[in-house]
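Fill-in record for AIDA protein.
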Amino acid sequence: QKTIAKIATCLELRSAALQSTQSQDEFKLEDLKKLEPILKNILTYNKEFPFDVQPVPLRKILAPGEEEHLEFEEDDEEGGAGAGSPNSFPARVPGTLLPRLPSEPGMTLLTINIEKIGLKDAGQCIDPYITVSVKDLNGIDLTPVQDTPVALRKEDTYVHFNVDIEIQKHIERLTKGAAIFFEFKHYKPKKRFTSTKCFAFMEMDEIKPGAIVIELYKKPTDFKRKKLQLLTKKPLYLHLHQTLHKE
């Protein structure tokens, strides 16, 4: 278990290196290849681990809607009722963004840059990331779910991401009433799982080039948009920038 947890740490380091523009102290592909014999002999491996890394703590990442049955938040800005969604695409781990689809004549692709999110306790969020999904009116996935890497930095009342999400369907092929959801998630050490703190969504009539700010709602995520409650009376928003690509 310890060896697997250390391998997980190395994979996280490699993932971070691939997403970083700096070249110093990065975890290289050659380093990653040193883990191959360990994986092949995982049950009998008893030598010293080749890298001085700390094991990734055991974390439980919950499926959408699952956490509402597990926890009642002590924070009065969290809670409320909502509906989970059955995942029709496999779950993905944080930091698994997908490339832009090939362009097609007359069809529009959407890139959303997630700039930052405003939260009163932004600095206290551990390993925050955002899960992006496109749902129909019944809360069913229309595209694969994507997770951003962990946030770049936390500053005052903002968590900064500055990451591009490529929506995995041409806009013209999205069903009427579809919406793009953004779930802000963070790790809770006491409960040892990753929890949704709040969510936001963007409807089809809001798809237009340029900057947009959208309101934050209380969890659990209500993919059917029936019982929406604002996270707080304070003006806190998710800041996005949209780019449309048309052939």
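KEY FINDING: The first helix runs from residue 2 to 19.
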